[in-house]
Design goal:
With 163 residues, this protein is α+β, with helices and mostly antiparallel strands. It has one domain: Gcn5-related N-acetyltransferase (GNAT) (Aminopeptidase), CATH 3.40.630.30. It contains four helices and seven strands. It starts with a strand and ends with a strand.
Length: 163
């Protein structure tokens, strides 16, 4: 497996990883039309503006094929300059539980350490039990904050100390 910073040319492959993972965890919770609308938006986002790739967007490749992606952003001013934001880690569902997500997670943590970030935060959909279990196994814990999500669902914020 090779994990590297994504380049603009990776946009289409990164979008398809994000879409496949998202469709898998929203399956049965969102209608197909809503999933298709968001898929079109994600394709435009990842293949559009090159500045998207100026953030820390990594892709995980196996045999030259992009199978996973992770995106961390700069700290949110209201949280403090020592708090990093993990926007997402996605792995193609047919490659779940093969260590790709953990390898991407480790790269994010290392990047934060190098940048002096001491706390990470992320949001996870309240019904995404698989993601919640993944993050819990990597030291993330709910911090009590939630925000409204789709329909009556919520997103739960998780927090982790970066040592």
């Amino acid at each position: 497996m090779n994990i590297r910073l994504a380049e603009h040319a990776d946009g289409a492959a990164v979008a398809e990883v994000h879409i496949a993972a998202r469709n898998a965890y929203y399956d049965g919770h969102l209608d197909v039309e809503a999933l298709d609308r968001r898929a079109a938006q994600l394709r435009a986002i990842y293949t559009g503006k090159p500045e998207r790739f100026e953030r820390n967007l990594w892709c995980a490749e196996v045999d030259g094929e992009v199978l996973g992606m992770a995106l961390i952003g700069p700290p949110k001013a209201w949280l403090g300059p020592w708090v990093g934001d993990l926007y997402q880690i996605h792995v193609r569902p047919d490659h779940w539980r093969k260590g790709i997500g953990t390898a991407l997670h480790d790269v994010c943590i290392e990047a934060w350490r190098d940048a002096g970030v001491t706390v990470g935060v992320l949001e996870v959909w309240s019904h995404n039990d698989r993601a919640q279990a993944f993050y819990e196994s990597h030291g993330w814990r709910p911090d009590g904050h939630t925000r409204p999500g789709h329909q009556a669902d919520t997103y739960v914020r998780l927090r982790r100390t970066i040592l």
